[in-house]
Amino acid sequence: MPKPSNPNPILPPDFDCIKVVHSFEELASTPFGYGVNAFCWPRVLDGDFAEVVEKIGLGDGITLLDESFLQGLQVSQAGYVAINEMLQDERLLSGLGLDPVLNCIHAYPSDDHGATISTDVYSFHADSAPLQSETWLCTYFGASSEAIRNEEAVRHVDIPKTRAHLLKLYGGQDDEGFYEFLSENCYDLHYSALPHAEPYSFGIANLWRIAVQYPGSPVQPCIHRAPRTNSPRLLLIS
Asked: Taking the complete model, does pTM exceed 0.85, yes or no?
């Protein structure tokens, strides 16, 4: 059986916005607060996730991995173990009333290079919702997502030059209509990393629960992004 996945990363001790937990129960039940907007359950998982990716095959977008599809793959015992690890995580989240999805991601849609603000998932961004919500993430294979602390980023719409470009695009004044324009296009959810920013990796096999921007949230949202890579990724998201 292949060597288990390495539970990367080792989080810096001064990252007080992150709390490391030691069980799924602790991950699910600990409330956001006191500046903590990300919880990480570091794990080592058995199984051959690379074999699962190989059996899924080539693609040019996002392949949905439902249980019947995964169970139908012709894999070794190590591949079967990896599949069960993913399905077990999916069941745990479903048990909380969530709607988790397993994907093999070959590539996400990407904004044109000429866009004033990139609003694809490769850009540092915050997730948002109209009601209380949160995002769960785990990368089983491939490059993992990464995040930065809120104080190490500035919203693109708060950068004067960028805001001026957006006002020109909007064709009006900096008023309530402009704010609606920013929100409708998700411009207000994307960030630029400051020069001193130190992004941290979500790592492989670790299960994360991160804060989302919604009215009344007790903490700031976790600012994160997907990696740009030419290799496929196995990802759980809810």
From this structure: yes
